[in-house]
């Protein structure tokens, strides 16, 4: 008499659950591996091409005029020379919509001056010159007192700023625009014996802070 081997419904259900569980595991491992490779690739690209922000320094600042026509109206004339450097070995930079101005104790003392856009290749450095002016600019009533006090102290401190937008370039790919701000502090000798017709000059290199 032959024996017939058959599995109970319970055994079939257990086998089906095992099969489905195994398929899910394979799918999960495949998805995890793909995601890990994708994240590793993105991290490698970021690590290789992540651009460093540009470096700016102030090489020269000359004040030709800083005088009050009325107690609260200022005429100013300042010339600046900046050194701009791209520290990146693989990333070039486009500079757009550049504007420069000067401020004194939190008060803007020149109008915004537009600088021409330019392109900066890998590890390239460029000199930028800006001539800033202001005519009958309103300032605080205490402006003349503050300048007089600085003259007695023998120095005047100006904040010289450049704002604009930049684009990173890697090969033929160019990124969108990112706003950046440059702030330089210049300490200029300004004593009681300074000749009225002589420009106040600072030719000491000053490292500027840059935010992107």
UniProtKB/TrEMBL annotation:
Keyword match Membrane: yes
Keyword set, alphabetical order: Membrane, Transmembrane, Transmembrane helix
Residue stretches making up the Late embryogenesis abundant protein LEA-2 subgroup domain: 82-184
Family matches, as InterPro entries: LEA_2, NDR1-like
Ranges in a coiled coil: none
The keyword Transmembrane helix belongs to this UniProt entry's keyword annotation: yes
Chain segments annotated as transmembrane: 27-49
GO cellular component: plasma membrane; plasmodesma
Gene Ontology annotations of biological process type: defense response to other organism
Membrane-topology descriptor: Single-pass membrane protein
Location relative to the cell: Membrane
Predominant cellular place of this UniProt entry's protein: membrane
Annotated protein name in UniProt: Late embryogenesis abundant protein LEA-2 subgroup domain-containing protein
Annotated organism of origin: Gossypium raimondii (Peruvian cotton)
